[in-house]
Amino acid sequence: MNNIDFQARIFKALGHPLRLKILKKLVSGELCVCKLVDDTEFTQANLSQHLKILSNAGLIVKRKEGNYSHYRISDDKTIDLLAHCEDIAANYIKKLL
């Protein structure tokens, strides 16, 4: 896979509201899947599919502890990217008003 293809994978992973919500929750630190299920109101199976997409894009990493899986953001640059995205969206919305 080349660099452009992987960048497209990252943006595709960011292109779903639930995945953005997951990442925003992980900005504050590592969370157990059980906590993410409670916070997102989705089934664990559905959430697991979204977590896999985020993981395959290199945006999150998983840590197993017994029967529980914990996820965290893999790189501080991902947090920066989310902040920039929020700024772009806020600026765009302001221009519309």
UniProtKB/TrEMBL annotation:
<dbReference type="Pfam" id="PF01022">
    <property type="entry name" value="HTH_5"/>
</dbReference>
<keyword id="KW-0238">DNA-binding</keyword>
<dbReference type="InterPro" id="IPR001845">
    <property type="entry name" value="HTH_ArsR_DNA-bd_dom"/>
</dbReference>
<dbReference type="InterPro" id="IPR051011">
    <property type="entry name" value="Metal_resp_trans_reg"/>
</dbReference>
<dbReference type="InterPro" id="IPR011991">
    <property type="entry name" value="ArsR-like_HTH"/>
</dbReference>
<keyword id="KW-0805">Transcription regulation</keyword>
<feature type="domain" description="HTH arsR-type">
    <location>
        <begin position="1"/>
        <end position="97"/>
    </location>
</feature>
<dbReference type="InterPro" id="IPR036390">
    <property type="entry name" value="WH_DNA-bd_sf"/>
</dbReference>
<keyword id="KW-0804">Transcription</keyword>
<protein>
    <submittedName>
        <fullName>ArsR family transcriptional regulator</fullName>
    </submittedName>
</protein>
<dbReference type="InterPro" id="IPR036388">
    <property type="entry name" value="WH-like_DNA-bd_sf"/>
</dbReference>
